[in-house]
Design goal:
- The structure is a single chain.
- This protein is mainly α.
- Helices cover 70% and strands 0% of the residues.
- It is built from eight helices and no strands.
- Helix 2 (36-72) packs across helix 4.
Length: 212
C-alpha cells in the first residue's frame, strides 16, 4: 500500500487557480489569434493548468477507492463499477470546484463522489444504506494503492485538457452544444470542434491502453 501525500489548503488553492487559468488560456488559444510570443505564453499557462489538474486528481484518487470499497461491501464487480463512477464524479467535482468559496478540494470532492456512489447503489435493487459515515465532513487521508493504469475511465479523463473536460462534462449533463457554448463563452462551432477532438483523444487513449 502506498499513500499519496495530502495537499495542504494553500497547495489546493494554488493548484485550483492554475487549473482555472489553464482553462481560460485554452479558450483563448482556441478562439483568438495573437502573436507567437503571446500564444506561447498561453500554451505554457495551459500546460501548467493540465499539470495542476493531474496533481489534484491523483491526490483524490485514493478517496474514490476508499468510498467504492466501502459501498461495494467486498463485491469485486460492484467495487469496480463504483470506482469508475467515482472517477467520473471526481472529474465533475474538480471542474465545479470554486476555490474562492474557501472549501477544501478534498472535502468538496469527498461529498460529491460519495453522493454519486450512494445514488448508484440506491438504484441497485434490494440495497439499503447501512454504512454510517464517521466524521464524513473531515478531511480523509486514506491509504491507497498506486494508480492502476488499467483503469480505463481514468486514462480517458486524464488525456483531456481543461477545455475538453469542461465541454465533455457539460455535454454529459445533457446540455446542447449551443447551451454548452453559452456556458463556456465559446462559439458553437468551437464547442463542436473541441467535443470531436476530445472524443478522438479519449477513444485513442482507451485503444492504446487496451493494446498495451
Amino acid at each position: 500500500m502506498e499513500t499519496i501525500e495530502v495537499l495542504s489548503r494553500e497547495q489546493e488553492t494554488e493548484l485550483a487557480r492554475r487549473v482555472e487559468a489553464g482553462v481560460f488560456a485554452q479558450h483563448l488559444l482556441a478562439t483568438s489569434g495573437g502573436t507567437a510570443a503571446s500564444r506561447a505564453e498561453l500554451a505554457f499557462i495551459a500546460a501548467e493548468g493540465d499539470q495542476a489538474w493531474q496533481t489534484l486528481w491523483l491526490a483524490n484518487v485514493g478517496m474514490v477507492r476508499v468510498l467504492a470499497a466501502r459501498y461495494g461491501r467486498g463485491q469485486r464487480e460492484i467495487i469496480e463499477d463504483l470506482t469508475q463512477e467515482g472517477f467520473i464524479a471526481l472529474a465533475e467535482a474538480l471542474m465545479r470546484y470554486d476555490w474562492t468559496r474557501g472549501v477544501r478540494v478534498c472535502t468538496h470532492s469527498w461529498h460529491w463522489v460519495r453522493s454519486r456512489l450512494m445514488a448508484v447503489m440506491r438504484k441497485r435493487s434490494g440495497w439499503e444504506r447501512t454504512t454510517t459515515d464517521v466524521n464524513e465532513g473531515m478531511q480523509i487521508a486514506a491509504p491507497v494503492v498506486e494508480v492502476d493504469a488499467s483503469e480505463l475511465a481514468q486514462v480517458a479523463l486524464s488525456v483531456l485538457n481543461g477545455t475538453e473536460r469542461a465541454v465533455m462534462l457539460a455535454r454529459a449533463e445533457g446540455l446542447a452544444q449551443r447551451d454548452t457554448a453559452q456556458r463556456l463563452g465559446m462559439g458553437v462551432m468551437t464547442v463542436r470542434t473541441i467535443e470531436q477532438r476530445a472524443i478522438r483523444r479519449a477513444r485513442q487513449a482507451l485503444e492504446d491502453q487496451v493494446a498495451a
